[in-house]
Write a structure and sequence with these properties.
The protein is an alpha+beta fold. The protein folds into 2 domains: about 260 residues, Extracellular Endonuclease, subunit A (Extracellular Endonuclease, Chain A); about 30 residues, no CATH class. It is about 25% helix and about 20% strand. The protein contains 7 helices and 15 strands.
């Protein structure tokens, strides 16, 4: 009997030793908790199947991108932006542009001034003086000409970036005109634009304003029968190439800039929309009309847009506006 009990003790001792070794080799994982300051904001999103039909008012400011920096999002009447203090210019400028806004034309103020919303102080006249660079608009003055206030705000230095004159007055201007033409044709578009602030950049002025090597622009048409988006990356230099030569899928622009464009769209919709580059989905050739405050008319081709004569798959008349002489938008051109 004692021998049997002794055997049990040996067995129990062996089991205890085995458990101790196992626990020593595989310690239990410590419980972890998510810091309170890492909670992600709840963003309302659009459903994939109802992307076009969901009212923009239910989504919010669709044009506002997401960028992992501590700078606050600042808002003027005509545009919003996030300011890069070290580089003394905006990371991005975003705004909605409607057909109606292109029809109004308050004259350029050319009154460049510091932005009162930038608490640390924006760039100023001395930074650009004798630099050889233009004070290049990010949100163009012509896009902000629909009121006196928006025109004045477009000349804040927070909306400026050092641009080579041949770039600012050449291909960049042509792209801006094309964007306005799309606003007329598509009734409303969402624009995000800015400098690419990557790598080692040269500086100008006493405040050390960085001179970007590239600029980007991203456009979203959310109002048509088919939602579409397109991006551009252009070097800060003159070019006689077609602007299509600088077109990219939106996600390629995201990779270069680190900015998440149109984050309020549902991921599935956003991924599909931004991964594709469809040049044929857009009408090329800047054809638009604006009317200045003095009622003068500036034309770049057809002066008025008309409703497309095409028919949708549901049998309804296409609601897209077009400037094409055929009377059809890009989707329904014969």
């Amino acid at each position: 009997m004692k021998k049997t009990l002794g055997n049990y003790r040996v067995i129990l001792l062996g089991l205890g030793l085995f458990v101790w070794i196992a626990l020593s080799c595989n310690p239990p994982q410590a419980k972890t908790s998510t810091p309170k300051n890492t909670t992600q904001p709840q963003v309302q999103v659009a459903d994939t199947d109802s992307l076009v039909k969901l009212p923009v008012d239910e989504i919010g400011s669709l044009e506002i991108p997401a960028l992992n920096v501590s700078a606050p999002i600042l808002r003027h009447l005509g545009y919003a932006f996030q300011y890069a203090e070290k580089q003394e210019q905006a990371y991005w400028v975003a705004y909605e542009l409607t057909k109606e806004e292109t029809q109004k034309g308050y004259e350029r103020s050319n009154d460049f001034r510091e932005d009162p919303l930038v608490s640390s102080g924006s760039a100023k006249d001395a930074d650009y003086k004798r630099s050889g660079y233009d004070r290049g608009h990010l949100a163009p003055a012509a896009d902000m000409s629909w009121s006196q206030q928006t025109m004045q705000e477009s000349f804040y230095y927070s909306n400026m970036s050092p641009q080579d004159p041949s770039f600012n007055r050449g291909i960049w201007k042509r792209l801006e005109e094309q964007v306005r033409s799309w606003a007329v044709e598509n009734e409303k578009i969402y624009v995000v634009t800015g400098p690419v602030l990557n790598g080692k950049l040269s500086e100008i002025g006493p405040d050390g304003v960085d001179v970007p090597k590239y600029y980007y622009k991203v456009i979203l048409d959310y109002t048509g029968d088919e939602v579409k988006a397109i991006g551009f990356i252009m070097p800060n230099e003159g070019s006689k190439k077609d602007i299509q030569s600088y077109a990219y899928a939106v996600d390629q622009v995201e990779k270069v800039t680190g900015i998440d464009f149109y984050p309020k769209l549902k991921d599935a919709s956003e991924n599909k929309l931004e991964s594709e580059l469809c040049l044929s989905c857009w009408t090329w050739g800047a054809r638009y009309v604006t009317r200045s405050h003095s009622s003068r008319t500036h034309q770049g081709g057809n002066s008025t847009s008309t409703q497309c004569l095409g028919t949708t798959k549901a049998g309804n008349r296409c609601k897209r506006m077009t400037l094409d002489e055929s009377g059809y938008c890009y989707q329904h051109q014969p």
